[in-house]
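quick one, 186 residues, struct below
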Amino acid sequence: MARGAVLVPTVPLAYQPLRRQVDLRASVEARLCFYLSALFTAAEEIRRHLAAGTPVVVESYFARCLANHHAFGARLGVTLPPDLPQPTTYHLLCGEDERRRRLAGRIKPLSRWDALSEEAAGQISAAYAQFPMYRIDTTSRAPAQIVQTILTTAQEGHHRADAEPVGAHPHVLPSVPRRSERARIS
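---
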């Protein structure tokens, strides 16, 4: 609301019933393909809003999908088309104690994928670190303070941030440590 933007879910409503079924299965490649399909569908909606002059906010985008699934062991090579909407990305971080407190407060059963995320937290963080994004520490900050930080960062820039929009650089998805030689995300 602070940006006058519309929130576009990156897993569209029509995908939600299937999402639950895909998340019950063990194939990381099938899950990656499902989430990529959802993101490409969301990208169509994002394009429509942007064409109408409406700003858009999403809770995650291709960087998160690719970083997480690579850390989970996905072996599929993915090359994103250059014409995707190019976001300015904010990676909201918090201290480990705060992160655990927030996770414990969620009203959601722990899934297999949540557990894998915890096991692969270091790999996911390393993969995220390679993407250009503003990193914002949210530890001990109220949501209104975080929003203000984002708005200020967007207007003034941030001395520690790489403000290049994700996807704008020809090597937006640089290689990350691989589990097998065939694994490639580019």
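The mean pLDDT is 82.
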